[in-house]
Structure formats: structure tokens, C-alpha cells
Amino acid sequence: MRLALQSQVIDEVVVIRCQGRIVAGPEVDALQNEVEKQTQFRKRVVLHLAEAAYIDSSGLGALVRLSGVLRALGGGLKLCELSGFLLQVLEITNLDSVFLTHPSEREAIDAFLDGARSPHQGHEPSRTKVVCLETSIDLLAFVDAVLKRYGYEVFSTRRLAEAVALVNATQPDLVICGPGMRSLPTGEAAIEKLRRDAPKTRILHLASDFSTAEAGQAAVELISRVQSLMAS
């Protein structure tokens, strides 16, 4: 089902009701455009997700990114009436304490009016440093958020030149390359250069369909592969 969006302003809070799939492509683009249109003057947004049937890694990354953008502008993003599927996804990805979720639309709106708790911290910080490279801003936000919630120290970039500088500066334990990075004309050569410049750094390539994988499964796969690689 394509994503249908219905927006309403209630008590100076933008409520966007989502029906369908929040996935990479036209659906995420539509949500992005709707948020931008509705938040020209109001920066507090509630996403009503009772009828959001599915979310992939890019879709969840888009929510992470939008939440950060709105917070930086003095507003915020809250989620309400999540389906059982979405609640499970947030729990599996360890992002359930990043987003402020509420059982009803009214409670989410009131939380803005009353002031709300800050998101909880994730796992204790790890000494493991990870550099993430990916051209998709939403997929990069997803990978960055999941890794940080599991305690990894993460440095993320969409630019190859910046990736080289990050690797040289941070001497990471692991470099994660998203599928978009390998599709660049100079992507493979740049990754090989990173391998030569930092021979002790492990490199993990994400699968070509990682950006469209169901968000919970993608997070489980990501953490499993990272942990396995770091233990080898």
C-alpha cells in the first residue's frame, strides 16, 4: 500500500496521520515533503502510526533524521498509536527510547504542551570506533542510530574524501560501507585505499538490499555482523 498522509494542526502541533508503508523511495519522499510543508511555522510534529503497516531501514532512518532536524530547530517529533509491528521494530532496533511514543494522539500533543522527558541513553559507551560510509542520508541515519544505541562510537559521512580523513584521524576498528557507496564510480578504489591505509581496520560491506530490508531484521543483521567481525 502506498503511503497516504493526512495533516491537521491541533493546539499548534502538527499531527500527520500515516496510512501504508514507510519505505525507501516515493513513500519516504512524500513524508519528507509533507513534514517540510507543515513545519514552515510550527516545529512540533506528532506522527500517528496506527495504520502504518510496514517500515524498512531507510524509512526508520528518515524518522531518526527528521526527529534530529526538528529538535535542532527547537521542536521535536513524537510518535503515537503505534501498531504492534512498529512497537516491535523499535524494541528490536533499540530505538524505543530514542523516540517519544504515546498511546494516543491527545497524549502526544499534551506532552508537547506540558514538556516531555528527554530520550534515554543507550548502552554504555564502547571503545570500539566505527566509521560509516553511505550516500543515502536516511540509511546512514539508520545505521548511525542503531550502532550508537548499542554503544559504539560512530563517525558517519556521505563523502569519500571525508571518509579517508575520518579513518586517518580516528583509526577506527571497523569501517562500514553502505550499498550506495560502492555504486559510486570511485567507490571501490576509495575503499581499497582505505584498506591499504589502515590494514588493521576491518571493513564490513552492507548488502545491496539492506536499505529496503525490514527495519528490525536489518538492525539484527547489522549488530550480529558487527559483533561477529569484531570477535574474529
Give a verbal description of the structure.
- With 232 residues, the chain is α/β, with parallel strands linked by helices.
- The protein has nine helices and nine strands.
- It has helices at residues 26-38, 57-72, 84-93, 105-114, 137-149, 160-170, 179-182, 187-197, 215-231; strands spanning 4-10, 13-22, 44-55, 76-80, 100-102, 129-133, 153-157, 174-177, 202-205.
- The strands form two sheets. It has a five-stranded mixed beta sheet with strand order 1-2-3-4-5. A four-stranded parallel beta sheet has the order 7-6-8-9, with helices on both faces.
- Helix 2 crosses helix 5.
- The termini are far apart.
- The model has no long low-confidence stretch (mean pLDDT 91).
Anisotropy-based shape: elongated
Order of helices and strands: EEHEHEHEHEHEHEHHEH
- Compute the separation of the termini in Å: 42 Å
Give the overall pLDDT as a whole number: 91
- The CATH homologous superfamily name of the largest domain equals STAS domain
How does the helix and strand content classify structurally? alpha/beta
CATH topology of the largest domain, which one?
Transcription Regulator spoIIAA
Q: Would you report the number of β strands?
A: 9
Extract low-pLDDT stretches. none
Annotated CATH architecture of the largest domain: 2-Layer Sandwich
* Major sheet: arrangement of strands: 1-2-3-4-5
Radius of gyration: 18 Å
Number of domains: 2
Instruction: Note the total helix count.
Output: 9
Relative helix content? 40-55%
Strand content: 15-25%
CATH class of the largest domain: Alpha Beta
Described by strand count, sense and barrel closure, the largest sheet is:
5 strands, mixed
